[in-house]
Write a structure and sequence with these properties.
Blueprint (H helix, E strand, L loop, with lengths): L5 H11 L12 H11 L4 H14 L3 H6 L2 H8 L6 H16 L8 H4 L7 H12 L8 H11 L8 H14 L5 H15 L17 H5 L16 E10 L3 E6 L10 E2 L5 H8 L5 E4 L3 E4 L4 E10 L11 E5 H4 L6 H13 L2
Parallel strand pairs: 1-6
Antiparallel strand pairs: 1-2, 2-3, 2-7, 4-6, 5-6
The structure holds iron/sulfur cluster.
Iron/sulfur cluster binds next to helix 9 and helix 12.
Length: 343
């Protein structure tokens, strides 16, 4: 801890860091919270348009709490990791109910809310109230592992404990906002996963990874585990104008989103009391999730126009608009293919 860390980082952030992101220059914990959740696993450039649209529709926590979860999911569609959107909604409802729509600013209270982990709680508290608390997201873990030459996979409990202790010990007495933002900026723009720009780094003189040329091997990778794969048929039932979709249960893969029915086409059509005029197999689509890979096997079933589907949770959507409804990313790609195949 004797090597300078916080002071050069703060000075660098003030001079060369990011200052004009849409969620900066505010002390509003609602806006900061929203950006922090969106930025988990997602790049800044991707988040900006989502963030702007989201705020236009849900300008404060009360508006978000009162919105139906389907509307929240539709605004989230394409950002991935949909549990974040469902937790966002649950969190807004908790803040509305328990805190009378006053978003908490204390890290300890924030960390109790749905979907807010220790690091996110610290970031919101630092930016909204200047609280002196440490963040430790993936970018910060990378910076600390490299700077101090910390070995082991940072997701392992023992390594993570060590990293939290280091992060706590490094906290400066003042300028917590610039320090926290500096860690984020450094990890996102200089100490990047591949080819870090050490020549522009304010921490270069004390950095062990740089001294020893170990930037490519620190932090250590997750120990290899084989990723399971599975495949599944998805039946795109269309009358040429409309597409039949069903809403997934709230929990599990793609919870709450609209998808085409999954399973054997004949069985599904039989259960719905429909008969296919024609059936066509479309090229498969591979999609990687965090814990497994899925090969989607799309089947296009054309049915006669005007068939009603009165089953609960099912809906016909215009084929031209279905891709923009609250559907998961691989399903959106397939709907576009189906729309051109069904022409
Ligand atoms: S010197 Fe290089 S490896 Fe070390 S913290 Fe800076 S950018 Fe990362």
């Amino acid at each position: 801890m004797d090597v300078p860390f916080a002071a050069p980082l703060i000075a660098w952030q003030k001079q060369a860091g990011r200052h004009d992101l849409p969620w900066q220059n505010t002390r509003d914990p609602y806006r900061i919270w929203l950006s922090e959740i969106m930025l988990q696993q997602t790049q800044v450039a991707t988040v900006i348009p989502y963030y702007t649209r989201f705020l236009a529709s849900f300008p404060d926590v009360g508006a978000l709490a009162r919105a139906p979860v389907e509307a929240v999911l539709a605004h989230w569609a394409g950002l991935g990791y949909y549990a974040r959107a469902r937790n966002l909604h649950r969190c807004a409802q908790t803040v509305a109910a328990v805190y009378a729509e006053n978003f908490p600013k204390s890290a300890a209270i924030l960390a109790e809310l749905p979907g807010i982990g220790r690091s996110t709680a610290a970031a919101i508290a630092a930016f909204s109230a200047g609280e002196r608390v440490a963040i430790l997201d993936g970018n910060v873990k990378r910076v600390l592992c490299r700077f101090y030459g910390i070995e082991g996979f940072p997701g392992a409990a023992s390594v993570e404990r060590k990293l939290w202790a280091v992060a706590d010990a490094l906290l400066p007495e003042s300028d917590i906002e610039a320090y926290t933002q500096g860690l984020m900026d450094l990890g996102a723009t200089v100490c990047t996963r591949n080819r870090p720009k050490c020549e522009h780094c304010p921490l270069a003189t004390g950095c062990i990874a740089r001294r020893d040329g170990r930037q490519a091997t620190l932090p250590e990778a997750r120990p290899r585990a084989s990723v399971p794969t599975r495949s599944s048929q998805f039946v795109f039932i269309t009358d040429g104008e409309q597409l039949l979709l069903t809403r997934r249960p709230d929990s599990g893969l793609w919870g709450g989103l609209l998808v085409p029915p999954e399973g054997d086409p004949e069985t599904i059509l039989g259960q719905l009391g429909m008969t296919a005029l024609s059936t066509e197999t479309l090229p498969p689509l591979k999609h990687a999730f965090t814990h497994f890979r899925l090969t989607l096997l799309p089947v296009l079933s054309r049915v006669a126009p005007g068939l009603a589907c009165l089953e609960a949770g099912w809906q016909w959507l215009p084929l031209a608009e279905a891709a923009d409804a609250g559907v998961p990313t691989p399903i959106r790609k397939l709907i576009r293919r189906v729309a051109s195949a069904a022409d």
